[in-house]
Write a structure and sequence with these properties.
Distance between the termini: 26 Å
Order of helices and strands: HH
Keywords: Membrane, Transmembrane, Transmembrane helix
Protein name: DUF2207 domain-containing protein
Organism: Streptomyces osmaniensis
Radius of gyration: 15 Å
Largest sheet: none
Number of strands: 0
Shape: elongated
């Protein structure tokens, strides 16, 4: 969970810098890609954790 929050924070910071700094629009796109990768990572963890064998 800590990794998810850290990557989300990095995505938001990169997005703000990309929007506010002129000529650094590529940071916005990198922030968006990090956010998408973060959401996919959490989705895979949730999906995988639901399939534990019954003992």
């Amino acid at each position: 969970m800590a990794l998810f929050l850290f990557l989300l924070l990095v995505a938001v910071v990169l997005g703000f810098i990309g929007v506010l700094a002129e000529g650094l629009l590529y940071l916005l796109f990198i922030g968006i890609l990090v956010a998408i990768a973060d959401i996919l990572y959490v989705g895979m963890r949730i999906r995988r954790s639901g399939r534990r064998p019954v003992r």
